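Human: Cast an eye over this sequence-structure pair and say how the chain folds.
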Amino acid sequence: MITRFSSFLFFPVLLFLGACDKAALPLDPDAPVAVEEIVVLSQTGATSILSGQTLQLTASILPANASNLSVTWSISDPTTALINNTGLVTALIAGTVTAKATANDGSGISGSFTLTIENEPSGDPLAIYKKIYGATAIYQDGQYVVIKSEDLPDHKSPYYLGTQWESTMYEDYNGNNSQFNLNPNRIKKQNLTFKLPLNPTPASNPQSTPLGSIGISLNGVPFYNQYAGPNNQPLTFEVNSFDQAYGHPQMSGQYHYHWEPLYLTANFGEDALLGFLLDGYPVYGPMENGQSVTNGQLDAYHGHSHATLEFPQGTYHYHITDQDPYINGSGFYGVPGTVTN
């Protein structure tokens, strides 16, 4: 009786040990990790755009260590919108489309994003550019907006000394730079013509910003990049000639800003729209949502994408900061227009 009971106990023990032995078998480290989920979002957070505009979509793959992280993009109705192999959607006509990112690992997993496309409102397509109150003319030329400026800053400056506007616009330097040194140039009237794309698009091969005008501010004064002429030198010494509005004229009398235009941020706010670069994307001040913007929050071109007061559907935009490169980084994010004088 005892022998039979012992044998009965021994058999389950063997089964248990066998099960433990199978559970302890190591996983194959070379086995491919399949995609389990794909989440598709827009880069700006927008879910609707206007016909003619573009929207960048992104696909987040889970798990992050999946063996094949690539996807194939497709769209439900190519007559309404197109999508390229990077997830950039180009809206053609009004309607609703679904963009899909499908895993390339053969798992059949996909993620989708529904986008609404609306027609351009019947209002003035140039309304946003008419915030550039310093322009002498603003009009549409095909797919471009043309903005003309005489580049006469509407704030006082020591650089009006000796000019025809001295009696009303000259003011001695009263800024905070104890090393300020008035350069020999004086403000002169210009004949600047900026031609910006009405529907900015990201550049496939971004161009470096040139010396000279790279954009226009609200008061018609050009933005310049982070370098001094003639050989892309740092602004180390040139900053000592910036007036109390952080501007100065170059040799031909073209007044410009390399840094934050203090007169504009003082009057419109540090989080305000301050102008546009030549690629048509807007430039905002050094604050956002009540916080100072840092270079670490921006991409290589000194911008990022999300909704703003003027662009509730979201847009790429630049920010001015107090550190190099100040206004713009490694070139234009978008395809630039032109400027002539």
Observations:
- The first helix runs from residue 2 to 23.
- DSSP finds three helices and 22 strands in the chain.
- Residues 1-20 have pLDDT under 50 and may be disordered.
